[in-house]
């Protein structure tokens, strides 16, 4: 499993968290996803043979949120 942390634009509401977490966890290959509201960060653990960090970034951006930085861990 790989880990990725993505710095997002400032999140404005708790609904944003549920929306992004839900979309990430429904993505094939994602083992876990967690949003840190105060830090505006998304963290995910994923299987690199099924999905890439770039695809996870696209999932978030397709919801209408900007991903400012992607850091592989």
Structural descriptors:
73 residues, alpha+beta, Alpha-Beta Plaits, four-stranded antiparallel β-sheet, 2 helices, 4 strands
Provide a quick synopsis of the model.
By secondary structure, the protein is α+β, with helices and mostly antiparallel strands.
Please describe what this structure looks like.
Residues 2-68 form the HMA domain. It comes from Jeotgalicoccus halotolerans. GO terms for molecular function: metal ion binding. InterPro entries: HMA_dom, HMA_dom_sf. It holds the Pfam family HMA. By secondary structure, this protein is an alpha+beta fold. The protein has a single domain (2-72), classed as 2-Layer Sandwich (Alpha-Beta Plaits). Helices cover 30% and strands 36% of the residues. It has a 4-stranded antiparallel sheet with strand order 2-3-1-4, covered by helices on one side. β2 and β3 form a beta hairpin. The longest helix is centred in the first third of the chain and has 12 residues, at 14-25.
């Amino acid at each position: 499993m790989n880990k990725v942390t993505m710095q997002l634009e400032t999140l404005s509401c708790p609904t944003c968290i549920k929306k992004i977490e839900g979309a990430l966890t429904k993505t094939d290959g994602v083992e876990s996803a967690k949003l840190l509201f105060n830090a505006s960060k998304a963290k995910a653990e994923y299987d690199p043979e099924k999905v890439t960090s770039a695809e996870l970034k696209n999932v978030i951006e397709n919801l209408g949120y900007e991903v400012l930085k992607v850091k592989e861990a």
